[in-house]
Design a protein that fits this description.
By secondary structure, the chain is of the alpha/beta class. Helix content is about 50%, strand content about 15%. It binds ligand 26V. Ligand 26V binds next to helix 6. Its EC number is 2.4.1.1.
């Protein structure tokens, strides 16, 4: 923990300000002040960062590398000050200088280099690894443009580029001396040398991969790990300047652009796989650079690679970094002269893989021709891995050609990345119990029965430091006052809070804290969107990517049904509610964009109807991102987790809401099941189809949306309202949603769950009426949220998969 007093801090800050801005503090803008503070904070971190790295080199502890296409970090300043343990000193010092720390912190752009759950999980994991003294580092891409900025114009999503680097970024340090060269295309010739087959790769396009290192600061423990993000730069040494000298300088610019394109932009679609060459290029680019730099570091500091598999673990976040497997093989064999068997043993020992989705349309497979031409040597290795794997299959499943071709890594002209990841790793995990079960018994069943020992579950988690302590300081104080502060280091100690669930004073405190968070959110929405909401109403929240399987439409339909009832009977006795939505749709996903339009049309109609406004309001908060989540989640009363059972691998916002004392209304899907198991049926509101019912529909058919419409007049009414001009004079506007639900017999069974969802919402109303009961439920949810800290998850990865994290702790 950094020891610094207020006066020293003030002096350092003033000096820093002058140093970087060349003017006096009194002349600075707020943004100047933010920059100086962030820069000073980074300076404070650097010494510990260097020491941590030195210590790792000395102790030679096993290093974990978490490879991910996405890291959704959000803002870093608050996190850095808190984890360094100097936020209070800093706040006081700035106060003396008439500067408000909170006001500076919100000037920082979110670092939004991720789509959603998968990227945010990677960020929570980095925080937990550093805080648990685990030598674990991230490896990814420094996209020039992060996840697009969502604007809502006339109710529709419009995408704008996320220029998060436009004002510079103080956190990352460019390490030009650690740049690597990554080779694309070209041709590979085989030749023999001293009786060994060798490979010569020529005519390739070289790309310079330049690392930017971001410090990942452990919580008050003198550990600073590294997130290394790679940026693509042209390698002019190798460029054919003869064309340039002929005056064809456009060619040089074209060349520069084509190289920089590799790390230009994050793909914004997390649910439909498209075989884009540039994405494959991104994948190999960061994987190859990352592995080369790990090996180079190891060679310099340790020497022989003989027992590398005992010194490092590489985890691949989904299949996106799967090329780590053939890349390691390439380096071991082509550069280190290992035999195939030795290289394979090391590679599979080093690599472990997490699957994050069972949606078939999101599974990555690359056309062989594209793969081969972009990565000729890597393709040869994948082909050989496949050949050897198929040989094993032939021996076991004699004559079962169909099965073998289904299990193969290369088949039907594609390279199947999930198969490569499973074959080339020692551990394959799902992210919640049900998800892992489905992986084992359905999606990857053949591979599971072939490698039963590889498969395991690691239920997701979230860092309680960001999502409770930073996002909800008042609740954190209440926990400290009641149960002490041991939960900070041992989050499951929060269970002691259950003893206070029936305590009237604590209940009242909980209610007041929630009210204060709701008021803050209401002010935020007033300021940013000009909309007034009532903090005394129940805040009913669904925030996540917009996707048919997450069923924002189900939520919207029940609001439409309630609205109809309220028009008929304005005296209807219901709990006043504010329905809050937020989330981005993939730019090419028409149905999801249309869903946003429907929500906004419903909001527009309801919010302008004075007959019902005292009772209901609907808000769509634009540009959902980490910092917006931090404002919304602590203010939620009700957490909507309503995906079609079996479709949501885990969900992580469900855990964030629970930890902040919201009650969950949920299907038994993903980690909702584990939340239910923790809090008990009486402290969560469950509805909807069971897993068996859903799977039966998928396997045997029998679902009829028309039957639902004909059997239930409410369903008939609300589905008609989508297309009868009630919400929009253009009756065609929401046709795609109507057709998806009815004409195409919706594969996510929205209408099937409608009745059960309405009943569940009615239960929510009656629970909320009994304020004491509601608060005690909130307390029980908070008390049981500790197991969903990513510290627990990371401990399970470290002991169960990586075999890391002990040496240093025991020193
Ligand atoms: C897939 C693709 C497909 C190709 C284009 C770009 C792209 C980018 C990301 C993805 C992965 C999507 C998988 C994902 O985000 N899964 C979510 O992972 C969360 C963390 O485990 C989990 O809580 C969510 O339930 C799951 O949907």
């Amino acid at each position: 923990m950094l020891k610094i007093d207020k006066e020293t801090f003030k002096k350092d800050y003033e000096e820093k300000f002058i140093e970087i801005h060349g003017k006096d503090l009194s002349e600075g803008t707020d943004y100047n002040k933010y920059e100086a503070l962030a820069s000073l904070t980074r300076d404070y971190v650097v010494k510990t960062w260097i020491n941590t790295n030195k210590r790792y080199d000395i102790t030679r502890e096993k290093q974990v590398y978490y490879f991910s296409m996405e890291f959704l970090l959000g803002r870093l300043l608050d996190n850095a000050l808190s984890n360094l343990g100097i936020r209070d000193i800093c706040k006081e010092a700035l106060n003396d200088l008439n500067i408000n720390l909170d006001a500076l912190e919100i000037l920082e752009e979110d670092q939004g280099l991720g789509n959603g759950g998968l990227g945010r999980l990677a960020a929570c994991f980095l925080d937990s690894m550093a805080s648990l003294n685990i030598p674990g580092h991230g490896c990814g891409i420094r996209y020039k443009y992060g996840f697009f900025e969502q604007k809502i114009i006339d109710g529709s999503q419009v995408e704008a580029p996320d220029e998060w680097l436009k004002n510079g970024n103080v956190w990352a340090i460019k390490k030009s001396d650690k740049a690597q060269i990554v080779k694309f295309g070209g041709k590979v010739d085989m030749f023999s040398e001293n009786g060994k087959i060798k490979f010569n790769h020529t005519k390739y396009e070289p790309v310079l991969a330049v690392p930017y290192d971001i410090p990942i600061i452990g919580y008050k423990n003198e550990v600073v790990n590294t997130l290394r993000l790679w940026s693509a730069e042209p390698l002019y040494d190798e460029f054919d300047f003869s064309s340039f000298s002929r005056g064809d300088h456009l060619k040089a610019i074209e060349y520069k652009n084509s190289i920089e394109a590799i790390s230009q932009v994050l793909y914004p679609d997390d649910s439909f796989y498209e075989g884009k060459m540039l994405r494959l290029k991104q994948q190999y680019f960061f994987v190859s650079a990352g592995i080369q730099s790990i090996i180079r570091h190891f060679r310099t500091h340790v020497g022989s690679l003989k027992d590398l598999d005992e010194r490092i673990a590489i985890h691949i976040n989904d299949t996106h970094p799967t090329l780590a497997i053939p890349e390691l093989m390439r380096i071991f064999m082509d550069e280190e002269n290992f035999s195939w068997d030795e290289a394979w043993r090391m590679t599979t020992n080093i690599i472990s893989y997490t699957n994050h989705t069972i949606l078939a349309e999101a599974l990555e497979k690359w056309p062989v021709e594209m793969f081969k031409s972009l990565l000729p040597r890597i393709y040869m290795i994948v082909e050989e891995i496949n050949r050897r794997f198929c040989e094993e299959l032939w021996n076991k499943y004699i004559g079962q050609w169909d099965k073998i071709s289904k299990m193969a890594i290369i088949s039907d002209g594609y390279v199947k990345m999930a198969h490569l990841a499973i074959v080339g790793s020692h551990s394959v995990n799902g992210v919640a119990k049900l998800h892992t079960e489905i992986l084992k018994k359905q999606e990857m069943a053949d591979l599971y029965y072939f490698y039963p020992k590889k498969f395991n579950n690691k239920t997701n988690g979230i860092t309680h430091r960001r999502w409770l302590m930073r996002a909800n300081p008042q609740l954190t104080d209440l926990l400290k006052e009641t149960i002490g502060d041991s939960f900070i280091k041992h989050p499951t100690d929060m269970e002691a809070f259950e003893a206070y669930a029936g305590n009237r004073i604590v209940q009242e405190r909980l209610q007041n804290i929630k009210f204060s968070n709701k008021k803050k959110l209401a002010e935020y929405l007033k300021f940013n969107q000009g909309i007034s909401i009532n903090p005394n109403s129940l805040f009913d929240v669904q925030v996540k990517r917009i996707h048919a399987y997450k069923r924002q439409v189900l939520n919207c339909l029940r609001i439409m049904e309630l609205y109809r009832r309220l028009i008929e009977n304005p005296n209807l006795d219901i709990i006043p509610r504010t329905f809050i939505f937020a989330g981005k749709a993939a730019p090419g996903y028409y149905l999801a964009k249309n869903t946003i339009e429907l929500i906004n049309a419903v909001a527009n109609k309801i919010n302008n109807d004075s007959r019902v406004n005292e009772k209901i309001k609907v808000v769509f908060v634009p540009n959902y991102r980490v910092s917006v989540a931090e404002a919304i989640i602590p203010a939620a009363d009700l957490s909507e987790q309503i995906s079609t059972t079996t479709k949501e691998a885990s969900g992580t916002s469900n855990m964030k809401f629970m930890m902040n004392g919201a009650i969950t209304i949920a299907t038994l899907d993903g980690a909702n099941i584990e939340i239910r198991d923790e809090v008990g049926d009486e402290n969560i509101v469950i509805f909807g189809m069971t897993k068996k019912e859903v799977l039966d529909y998928y396997h045997k058919g029998g679902y009829s949306a028309w039957d639902m419409v004909n059997r239930d007049y409410r369903i008939k009414q609300v589905t008609e309202d989508i297309v009868n001009g009630f919400y929009c004079s253009d009756k065609e506007k929401f046709k795609s949603i109507y057709e998806h639900l009815i004409t195409y017999n919706d594969e996510f069974f929205v209408l099937k769950d409608f009745d059960s969802y309405l009943k569940a919402q009615k239960r929510v109303d009656s629970l909320y009426r009994d304020s004491s009961k509601w608060q005690s439920m909130c307390a029980i949810n908070i008390a049981h949220s500790g197991v969903f800290s990513s510290d627990r998850t990371i401990q399970e990865y470290a002991t169960g998969i990586w075999g890391s994290g002990y040496l240093y702790k025991n020193l």
